[in-house]
Amino acid sequence: MKSNTVRTRALLIILGVVVLALAIGGERAQRALAGLETPDAAFQSPFDTPTLFPTATPFFFTPFPPGPPVTSPTPTLDFSVVNKITNPQDGDAVAGFAIIEGSTIIDDFVRYDVHYAVTGSENWQWLATSRNAVRNGVVHVLNTYQLPDGRYDLRVRAIARDGDYT
User: Fold this and answer.
1) Which regions of 1-151 does DSSP assign to beta strands (E)?
2) Least confident of 35-39, 53-57, 64-68
3) What distance in Å separates the CA atoms of residue 1 and residue 60, rounded to the nearest whole number?
4) Which residues pair with 55 in a beta bridge?
5) CB-CB contact of 102 with 62 (8 Å)
6) Are 57 and 30 in contact (CB under 8 A)?
7) CA 27/CA 70 separation, integer angstroms
8) How many CB atoms are located within 10 Å of the residue 21 CB?
9) What φ, ψ does residue 143 adopt, rounded to 5°?
10) What is the 8-class DSSP label of residue 13?
């Protein structure tokens, strides 16, 4: 009867150790059970390493990776009034569908128009109109397949509420 009780007790302790190890981690379970005596049963944790003198249990701590800096530069708002084409630049050759990039920002903006003309002529042809102001973005996509080969000038006119344009 006594051996049955000892076995049951040992099995319950082992079961408790396994549950504790799963619940709180192996190293913490080892430290929690360090002083536990098991009468009439041999018990050794799989984490134990016999030593002649008591040693400290290593505690491994992996710090979290550093987060973003606490202070970050505040972006500067650009309130400059600008109406220009930034791409393509003077002398660039384009073919196919060419993206015209730029800005169409003026005071009291209403709309902008995009025009082209054969270089040297003042015979401007309308390409597009938009009521959405653009800052450093796509103003128009030019289909060069509709134009004969040659040199062309591009312009973008931003039109204000009073009819003035730049």
Assistant:
1) 82-87, 97-105, 109-118, 125-130, 137-143
2) 35-39
3) 44
4) none
5) no
6) yes
7) 34
8) 19
9) -90, 100
10) H
Instruction: Give tens-digit pLDDT for 60-107.
Output: 555 666 666 667 667 776 667 788 999 999 999 999 999 999 999 998
Burial class of residue 106, CB neighbours in 10 A (0-12, 13-18, 19+): buried
What residue spans define the domains of the chain? 1-56, 82-160
| pLDDT beyond 80 at 126 | yes
Please answer whether residues 159 and 115 qualify as being in contact, where contact means their C-beta atoms are separated by less than 8 angstroms: no
pLDDT band at 41 (very low <50, low <70, confident <90, very high): very low
Encoded tokens for 117:
């003309």
Query: Which residues on neighbouring strands pair with residue 87, listed in sequence order?
Result: 101
Number of residues assigned to the chain:
166
Q: Using the Cα atoms of residue 14, residue 19, residue 25 and residue 29 in order, give the sign of their dihedral.
A: negative
One-letter amino acid identity for 26? G
